[in-house]
Prior knowledge:
The protein has a single domain (10-90), classed as Glutaredoxin. It contains four helices and four strands. It has helices at residues 19-30, 47-53, 73-81, 85-90; strands at residues 10-14, 36-39, 62-65, 68-71. Helix 1 (19-30) packs parallel to helix 3. The radius of gyration is 13 Å and the shape is globular.
Amino acid sequence: MPSPSPAPRVEIYTSPLCGFCHAAKRLLTQKGVSFTEIDLSRHPDRRPEMLARAGGRHTVPQIFVGDTHVGGCDELYAMDRAGRLDPLLRS
């Protein structure tokens, strides 16, 4: 029987005063998903990386599951409501 593949890496670019960032992290935490948080206030040198990965989107949060750019908080919650988030997190 093949072993299950590891869950994809989840990364989220944030800033500390962003309510949408807190909401996105709360949803991921409720789902038991571990994620890497990149706080742009502490690591401003990572902003160009986020812009490049997010197709120029400059707002936070910007959320990535593996190679998939989910988008921001609204997109994360929309994927969850549509039943598309859990399969992505398990892919």
